Queue: 2 jobs
Job 1
Amino acid sequence: MTVRILGIETSCDETSAAVVADGRRIESNIIASQVDLHRRYGGVVPEIASRKHVELALPVVREALDQAGCGLDALDAVAVTAGPGLVGALLVGLSAAKALAWARGIPLIGVNHLRGHIYANFLANPDLKFPLLCLIVSGGHSDLVYLEDHLHLRRLGRTRDDAAGEAFDKVARLLGLGYPGGPLVDRLASDGDPEAVAFPRAYLEEGSYDFSFSGLKTAVLNYLQGPGPHRPPADVAASFQAAVAEVLVDKTMKAAADTGVRHVLLAGGVAANSALRHRLDRAAAHRGLAVTYPPLELCTDNAAMIAAAGYFLHQAGRRDDWDLNAHATLPLV
Ligand code: KG4
Ligand code: ZN
């Protein structure tokens, strides 16, 4: 029998609801982006995000059900992002999810946002087999996670300062590109020379799987403010991007070798980056490793990935109580 899960995601600035069957088939995935509202502030304003989620949550859920062609009575559970994220924003999705689950008498399942990003890969590739290694690179996180199975995830490394996406957004601002910066840097870099400027690569101490990107961001700032002559912005963008991708891919390859994992997943908004994908593909092919990454629309925040993650937790018997709360920080396991 089909298990149909409604996913709700409101951790940042997208209000999203989705219906996913058996954790793999997307029946609908509605994403209302608030990016235009926040653009003039150069970043997400939490209070504005919360207020907008209140306006959008139920219409987005209704649209997700309509597009899936099902009513509330066809749902087996509601999965909702419980953190990490903006607490006020998370609470809106949590309240909607609790109300719907309570009204229908179906289980409520809280999902870690990062687990959601990982599970976008199960939507892209239904045949994934454990153990897996996932590089999560988003606006708020850069984590290297080992997955033994659905319930046993172990974080091998994390960023010690800026997240990869944050570095992209900050460098975009330095280059006067606007917000959100990742896709704009990516586009500009496509005409640039990645070897034009030798930006630093932070590998940290021997054997560490942690990341650090704030020094790189400062190096870009110093370069742009330093004495010329300066290379064109496309070269700066391409060189910065190459420095990020090189460290991310090298550490991921080392972790794959150390853990013996043969299949690597990429997740989070920065997984959309073309240089990162290209470099990971090449490195993995060289070592005979398989690589999966979600299609572009499932890399950034969406509720289908939350429903997919919720499905596997549901099958493992996970249920949350009505006192499930929102958490700005939330450990992955
Ligand atoms: O996963 P996500 O939608 O939100 C978080 O959970 O943080 O990631 C958003 C981040 C932003 O920093 C954005 O600039 C970055 O992903 N991003 C990219 C690209 N597309 C989105 N970074 C680099 N290249 C891209 N093509
Ligand atoms: Zn995210």
Job 2
Amino acid sequence: MNTADRAPPALPPLYQWAAPPGWRCIDFISDLHLSAALPRTVNAWAAHLLNTPADAVLMLGDLFEVWVGDDQRERPYERSCIDVMAEAASRRTIGFMHGNRDFLLGQTMLNACGLLALPDPTMLDAWGQRVLLTHGDALCIDDVEYQRFRATARTPAWQRAFLALPLAERLRQAGAARAASQQRKDTAGFDPDLWADVDPAAAVAWMHATGCTELIHGHTHRPGSETLTPGHARHVLSDWDLDHGEGRAEVLRLTRDGLKRVAPATAR
Ligand code: MN
């Protein structure tokens, strides 16, 4: 591998957000990959947003399997998701950070849902705990091909050109890209342990630069917590899928006492 391609990403301009001191609890979820094909998953997500005891639910990317522009919100499935978020946002703060699947979710959709936009990365200060929040894809620097695509697709010029295409064509292109990516994995003999992961040194560099002791990210679908270096812990969020196999869904919850993993809230 050409090491020049693997330069650690510079820390983007940092967005800092302090949780109101009266809050008691903040939930983090990510990688729900919601689509009409996952009815149980969307129901569990809706029940959690509406019934959690948390003051805020922060969704750290890949909420939707695909998002190719805010005109997608007019489709029936997406409209039902908007209704859920708008109702939840009337009760508590619902935050949204872009993932690699839904980075085109825009201000129109944020407004329709009442979502708080969280730039990637965001530094959360809650009860004196400094937590760095990121989707995680920017730190997966071993995935050189993806990083090239990401750099291009995050430019205003690329987004203007793509969003000018008809919705059906954007959906077609997104589907083709996912199929090609799946085929690469299948051909390579998919091994979760070889799947690109957050680069530990790059993660620690971001944490060091921001004075954060905890890093929370999704994207890799390998939930777990570990110490990267002394004083720098990372917590990987669970993906959600309750429509296949045994199913999995998990919430990472922050309180004054720290982080713990809990099951999603269910309808009361
Ligand atoms: Mn992702």
